[in-house]
Amino acid sequence: MKARVQEPIVWTWTKSPLGRLRLVGRDGALSGLYFEKHRGAPAPEAHWREDLEPFAAVVAQLGEFFSGRRTAFDLDLELDGTGFQQRVWSALREIPYGAQVTYGELAARIGAPRAARAVGRANALNPISIIVPCHRVVASNGSLTGYAGGIAQKSWLLDLERSGPAMTRRGGGELSSSPEV
């Protein structure tokens, strides 16, 4: 039996209404989507290959999302994390577009009602911002807390989901791709 040879890690930048986003993937799956100033985002390494082409579907679906024409993503994702993190990230993908839940509510949804802080930590380690929508999770008092891309970006995403296409007419715009660094 032959071992499967993994493709090299590929990455690129793409422009968005929230600034540049770094896309990272391997074997046809997206494994990272990071804001340019994303706390804790991995930096491209020497063995990574910069290439926009593998991310065509990601860029297209992000463009539809930012223009208010897409409410869910249909992409192959490679989420690398602990079993608990996987449960949290899976539950995040079940939060409907435009909805918000608290960290405690999300903890209860995954069967760990006393693990709100651990859910917050899993959110902070979410490697695929926007597509795995950790921006939809808020504090128990409804305030916006902790978002690796910044609170302003979290607020913008929630406003987009509340107002749909009108948000992009006020200054968002279509997503465009750019291989520049």
Keywords, separated by commas or semicolons:
five-stranded mixed sheet; 181 residues; two-stranded parallel ribbon; 7 strands; 2 domains; Arc Repressor Mutant, subunit A; single chain; alpha/beta; globular; disordered C terminus
Provide a compact summary of the structure.
The chain is of the alpha/beta class and 181 residues long.
The residue ranges in which pLDDT falls below 50 over 5 or more consecutive positions are: 166-181
Computed over alpha carbons, the radius of gyration is 16 Å
**Beta-strand residue percentage:** 5-15%
Question: How many domain units?
Answer: 2
CATH topology label of the largest domain: Arc Repressor Mutant, subunit A
> Largest beta sheet, briefly?
5 strands, mixed
What is the CATH architecture annotation of the largest domain? Orthogonal Bundle
- Average pLDDT confidence is 88
Assembly type of the chains comes to: single chain
Can you describe this structure?
By secondary structure, this protein is of the alpha/beta class. The protein has 2 domains: about 10-65, no CATH class; about 85-165, Winged helix-like DNA-binding domain superfamily/Winged helix DNA-binding domain (Arc Repressor Mutant, subunit A, Orthogonal Bundle). It is built from 6 helices and 7 strands, in the order ββββααβααβααβ. It has helices at about 55-65, 85-90, 105-110, 115-125, 150-165, 165-170; strands at about 10-15, 20-25, 30-35, 50, 100, 135-140, 175. Strands 1, 2, 3, 4 and 7 form a 5-stranded mixed sheet that branches. α3 crosses α4. The longest helix has 13 residues, at about 150-165. It is globular and about 40 Å long. The model is unreliable at about 165-180 (pLDDT under 50).
